[in-house]
Predict the structure.
Amino acid sequence: MNSLILTSSSLADLNDIAGKIVEFSSDQKIWLFEGEMGVGKTTLIKHLAERLGSEDLINSPTYGLVNEYEDGNGNPFYHFDFYRIKNEVEALEMGCEEYFYSGNICLIEWPSKIEKLIPENHLMIAMELGNENQRIINLTKHG
Ligand SMILES: Nc1ncnc2c1ncn2[C@@H]1O[C@H](COP(=O)(O)OP(=O)(O)OP(=O)(O)O)[C@@H](O)[C@H]1O
Ligand SMILES: [Mg+2]
């Protein structure tokens, strides 16, 4: 199975949805989050981080481009937010390729800002607003 569509009706659904996403995505390392501002990317990532075993609450990285967490087995995983990045050179300078090819999970908001640097093998998680307060979450494995 290479794709999956999930729908959230409210914030209360996100724990279950995060569980389903982790199950579907357990063989993936590069998880991309696309969707307009405010659609809920950071909020979903926060629930995913909890599912992956992080005990720290995570927030959108405001000052740095990357936050590091630890899963239940003591392995690091990373959350990137490239919204404010100037260009791909800045991403290379912060060592993004070392993270992307580390073999650890990378959760990446605004990957379109550094499109050329994204590994071919990745999971796309595209979020859209639906009716009412719904969030439609499309998962597709690439590569
Ligand atoms: N599944 C959901 N159901 C209802 N409300 C949600 C859901 N996910 C997020 N929200 C609400 O939407 C708002 C924006 O969420 P969030 O910051 O996660 O968006 P974002 O996509 O990361 O935005 P940005 O592109 O600015 O980083 C928050 O107030 C959050 O509570
Ligand atoms: Mg965000």
The longest strand covers residues 122-129. The domain at 3-136 is CATH 3.40.50.300 (Rossmann fold). The chain has a mean pLDDT of 93. The chain has one domain: 3-136.
